[in-house]
Here is the input.
Amino acid sequence: MLEVRDLSVKYGHFMALRGVNLTVQPGEIVVLLGANGAGKSTLFRTLSGLQRSSGGSATWNGTALTTGRPEFNVAHGVAQCPEGRLLFPDLSVEKNLRLGAFVHRRDASGTARELERIYELFPALVEKRGAPAGSLSGGQQQMVAIARALMARPQLLLLDEPSLGLAPLVVEQVFQAVQRVNNDGVSVLLAEQNAFAALGIAHRGYVLEGGQITLDGPQQALMTDDRVRSAYLGV
Amino acid sequence: MTIVLQQLFNALALGGVYALVALGLTLVYGVMRVPNFAHGGLYMLGAYLTYASLDRLGVGYVPALIIAALGVALLAALLERLIFYPLRDAPHVHPMIAAIGVLFFLEALISHPSVFGPDFKQIAEPLPGILNLGGVTLTWQRLLIIVASLLVMWGLNFFLKRTLTGATIEAMSQNREGARMVGINTNRVGMLTFAISGALAAVAAALVAPINAVTPAMGEVMNLKVFAIIILGGMGSVPGAIVGAFLLAFTEVFGGFYISLDFADLIGFTMLVIVLAIRPQGLFQRGT
Ligand SMILES: Nc1ncnc2c1ncn2[C@@H]1O[C@H](COP(=O)(O)OP(=O)(O)OP(=O)(O)O)[C@@H](O)[C@H]1O
Ligand SMILES: [Mg+2]
Here is the structure.
């Protein structure tokens, strides 16, 4: 279980997160809604060990994630598909995926098995496996980014705005893939501005505003909440 | 015809040396995003370590080359820890100036009378003599340079393309944040890349030392050339460094032969200016 308690993060004097509380239970998909600059990526980067926290705690099954050492967090089952994807554009799709399994580098057979599973999950990537990742379409690159995170065999998958810049049909495909991953037992924390699609697959959700959680609840409650409807569903 | 072949042969040997030194510089630039102005100093140290191993330790040429490569690799990794790592978040000018300081420090240290002194040193050719192929005279040492540099480049390519550790170097140079995200220890990759760059520079120096004199200033001269090469090829590009190295070597050798040997360096840099006027990003633009 992911447990975030009173988490604060500062950039210099600017407080990007102010005492955030949030949990993700095993097997859940939890959506984190928030406008531009709300602090979603800051939270995700902190959970990945890429950003230092200035207060509070974040633990995964009791293990502290506020280490400042991303390799530790990945090795302990928390992998992220980041905003902007951060792929290795000149390396082949398959090499990108293999690097996703870097923390399992001593387990070649496990990585080979995972690679096969990934190609079943994203059949479109099979014929692109030798192509440079940067040559793929936006949707395909998003698939590679998710697949690369999955190659770490995470128990918790952090997805930072995977629908950004994608056509509605492609967004649907991406979210279907997320749901299948979740069905295999991976917990998912999903940051989105595209609230409609995200709430469609989520069990629960939080709303982050100005670095603070202002609202949380189960999927249905958020779907029908007036504030969510006007701010994130555009109705 | 034989004269052209003769020049071709000389240019290949020179290009091989340039390529080895430039490859290390471009790898380090790719990973650290900062030009290592101390690189020429590592090359110079490689030559002196070879000389010292031969002259003071009395070992053979191949062990001397290996000692030089290992010694400079270690020093380069240390340089990453002491200079580039602490300054990683400072403005880029800071590590650049620090690296220039290291270059001058190394030069002054080697020139000191109690170390090697300012005079040039000579290394005997391990394989003296020449091979005459229909009028083209090939010195064994140049042949050795060509073969050894091609072998080292092949090995480096194999390492970068076929091993996971090699892939971490390419990954980090293409997306540093992405590399951290998947759990690659970027500190370790940085040190490793520096060590490789040092070893490559030292091997190049050990190969060319028997032909050229070993002097404290040799690093500065090489610095200019390899920076020209990686700017020409595209900063951070591996194929760019190789193509740029041979292009510069061919221009220098043929320009020096057909125009004037005195102008060989000038011709090389003229070529650089012309290429950059046409392709400011260098020959091999990198993906972002
Ligand atoms: N490296 C940084 N240095 C200083 N301020 C930063 C830095 N990164 C983010 N911020 C600030 O922190 C706040 C939260 O940014 P963050 O990227 O976490 O928002 P976000 O919710 O992910 O937004 P978006 O939806 O646009 O991705 C913003 O005000 C941003 O300007
Ligand atoms: Mg963001």
Observations:
- DSSP finds nine helices and ten strands in chain A.
- The CA atoms of residues 138 and 150 of chain A lie 18 Å apart.
